[in-house]
Each structure stands twice: as C-alpha cells, then as structure tokens.
Amino acid sequence: MISARHPVDNPEGWMTECCERMVEAGLPLWRVGVFIRTLHPEVFGRNFIWTEGVSGIQMGTVDFEIQTTPEFQASPLSIVFSDEVEVRGNPHGPEAERFPVLLDLRNEGATDYLALPLHFLDGTLHAMSVSTRQPGGFDPEQIAALRVIIEPLARIIEIISQRRTAEMLLDTYVGNSAGARILGGQIRRGHNDTMQAAIWLSDLRGFTALSDRLPPETVVQILNRYFDCQVTAIRGHGGEVLKFMGDGLLAVFPIDEYVGDAAHVSARVLEAARESRASVEALAFPVGDIVERFRFGVALHIGNILYGNIGGGNRLDFTCIGPAVNLAARLEKIAGKLGRTVVASEGFVKVCRHDWRELGEFPIAGFSKAQRVYGLAEETRAAVV
Asked: Can you give the pTM of this predicted structure?
C-alpha cells in the first residue's frame, strides 16, 4: 500500500501518497488528520491534514494552552486523548450539536467522521481522524478496514514522529545545521569540516555583579529574556546559535565561498547586531522596587573555522574552533574595555560596507600582530562596567 518513493524524512510526501493509495484501495476518504503530541519546549503538538483534491499537506502547531481551550474540550479529539477510545460522529446527526467541528464538516459536505487513537510503542497516545463525503457515510466494511490498518499506520507514523522529534531536539540543543549533520551521520570524534563564516560572540555586561546580588532563579529568568533579544535576530538573519556559555553566546553565519556572498552575509550580521542592541536596550526586568536595565557587547569577525565533533570519550560537542573564533573572543573583551556595544575586526569591516570608525590597534594574546578594531560611528562610548 505504501510506496518507498517517499521516505520518512519526507512525511508530507509520504502522507499524501498513503492517503491517495487508501482511496485507490476503496476507502472513500475525503479528509485525513494526524495529530501528534511532541517533545518540544514550546510546542504541545503538530497536526497534518490531507484533503482530497487539495495540493499539499496542511500543517500546523499548537501550544500547551490548547488543552484548556473550549474549542479543544468540545472536540472529539479531547475524548480520544482522555479516554483512549474511538469517537464517531454524524455531521447530520444530533452529535453535531455536541461537537462543533462536525457542523463545520457538514458545511463542507462531509457525511461521516471517525477519530481513532494512535498508540505508539513508547506508550504515548496520539490521534488520527478520517472524514468522508460518501452518501450514507462509511459502511461497516470500511470502518473495519480502518481499524485494521490503524496499527501498522501507527508504527510508520511513530518512526516519522521520532525522527522529527530528534530533529527538533537537535535543533533546540545544538542548532539546525549541526543537527542535520549529526542525523546525517557525522557522529565520530574528529569528524569535522572547514568553512568560512561570520562569527558572533557576545556577553552581558555586569553579569558577575548581577549574579552576586540577585537570587539564582531571577538570574536565570533574566538570562532567558536577554538571550531572546539575540536569538530571534540571529536566526532571522540566517545565523545559527552554537553555544550558550554562562552569559556568553557564540553564533555563526555561514558564507558560501563559491557564491561569494560575504558582503551580503556580513550586512545581515550587522543588522542582527543592531536589532539585538535595540532589544537589549529596551529590556526592563522588575526586581522588587528596582527595574533592572541591561547592556551587552558583541564582537564580529570573518574567518575560516573548524566545525565538527570535539570532546572526550563518549561525550562530544558539535562546535567550532580556530584562530578566527579566538580572535572574536578577544575582540569581545576589548568591546567591554572600550564601552562599546558592537565592535568588528578589520576582516569584517573590509567586506561589510558601513560607517565604521577605527578605535585603535590592540595587542591580542596569542596573535603575533596587533589587530585594528572598529566600532559603529553611530555609537558613543558608554560607561565601562
């Protein structure tokens, strides 16, 4: 029934083909929905909807608050999840008054609806719904056929779900590019690549003093809010966050050397830095009678990095190293001494056309030559903290 033309890393294509083949086998499906609960810090579940005659799969996500909404509580799916039972409804019958979704389906021509539990081998419960426009609804043989295929479908859907969960968790903890490489088989220590990238290294000014005078729980809340100010801008401009180090953040913006897009990438990096600066400046965190305000510094550099698995024993980290990363780290410390928010290396300034001001030449530990450091002309020196 299921072709290998759409492997599990293409769930949309697989679901489309699966539904089409069930229709070819005699099941009068009009709409099929798969509802998967996820292991994600912000997403409670995902839904995938196939509709006959409609190109593509409609996909959506719901947050954890969905469980308390009147819409969900008045849905057949709430019963499937709470009682682990099938729920069948006739859009033209009295149950349509109980389940508003059946009224919506009736308006679209549906004649029958069935929601079934999907039991995964790990013990978790998910759901699948099917609707038809066949006059009189599903007949007994078709209902029996759906009950027969639901278990093997659950196995395949579980495989797809587990892969997507792995992708999401890797994306959350190591970044999307690193996650893709790990899933692609780059799991051995020493397995790495060299690439050119714009490097972003930042930290929060005055973090040590902040940690000393505030409760640890409050410091964690502040860090999360502070990192939000950067991560949104970094990812929105094509960057990847590799690591959080206390109050520090390391991100890279890959450069395609064959395309020669260094100028374009560096411009996006600078825009992300300016957006982050504005967000951090606007951040206000009330602590008792005091409203805490914050400043940060970020160093920007361009260079070649070694990107891959580094670690000891069976504990590895997918990160980047190299002289370019070391230089960015040194520049970030210089930014603090100069009271600047954004500083850049000479290499970054050469490809990022902007109104820069040379801040001086500084000896850098580990480098034989002093390095020229640049700042934005629009910034003035702030108090050093």
From this structure: 0.65
